[in-house]
């Protein structure tokens, strides 16, 4: 049985494996890339190990979570995308992060379009959200190209802001 979840023209998106730990570290341990993720800090190896445990739990509970992204033409993880419910939130949230050398090639948009299609078809999710830093114009472009629309600007408890993006599946898609 394959662990591939879906494929696009250039990509294979698959379930995470324990052996992906070093790839998680390469992406989420990159301080420059992580300026746009969570608290803006790279995550540790122990946090990556815990992430794998949580992801496998999500697969069991929901059938989805974070996934590894590979190029069809070459082996090796280039990044991650997934559907998550951070902090137990009800809304399905799409997330992604890639090695910096793959930024600006349309990969995030391609994977996100595939991810939304997968979520609507395989899991009948009709609404997705994404959250970004208000100044992260590159992610705003990715989300817009994938069919998400800019929503409200949310104020966080610490006084900072988060830009919301939303996607509603057409009635015939789910």
Automatic annotation (TrEMBL):
User: GO MF terms on file?
Assistant: acyltransferase activity, transferring groups other than amino-acyl groups
Ordered alphabetically, the record's keywords are: Transferase
Q: Which Pfam families match?
A: Acetyltransf_3
InterPro entries xref list: Acyl_CoA_acyltransferase (IPR016181), GNAT_dom (IPR000182), N-acetyltransferase (IPR051531)
Q: Which residue ranges does the record assign to the N-acetyltransferase domain?
A: 11-170
SUPFAM superfamilies recorded for this chain? Acyl-CoA N-acyltransferases (Nat)
UniProt KW Transferase keyword: yes
Q: What is this protein called?
A: N-acetyltransferase
Specify the species: Rubrivivax albus
């Amino acid at each position: 049985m394959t662990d591939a979840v879906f494929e696009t023209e250039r990509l294979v998106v698959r379930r995470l494996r324990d052996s992906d730990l070093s790839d998680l570290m390469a992406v989420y341990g990159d301080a420059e890339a992580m300026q746009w993720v969570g608290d803006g800090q790279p995550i540790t190896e122990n946090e990556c190990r815990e992430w794998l445990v949580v992801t496998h739990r999500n697969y069991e509970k929901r059938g989805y979570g974070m996934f590894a992204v590979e190029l069809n033409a070459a082996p090796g993880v280039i990044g991650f995308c997934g559907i998550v419910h951070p902090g137990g939130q009800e809304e399905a949230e799409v997330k992604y992060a890639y090695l910096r050398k793959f930024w600006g090639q349309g990969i995030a948009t391609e994977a996100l379009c595939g991810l939304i299609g997968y979520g609507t078809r395989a899991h009948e999710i009709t609404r997705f959200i994404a959250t970004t830093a208000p100044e992260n114009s590159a992610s705003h472009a990715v989300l817009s190209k994938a069919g998400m629309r800019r929503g409200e600007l949310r104020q966080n408890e610490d006084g900072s802001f988060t830009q919301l993006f939303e996607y509603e599946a057409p009635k015939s898609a789910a």
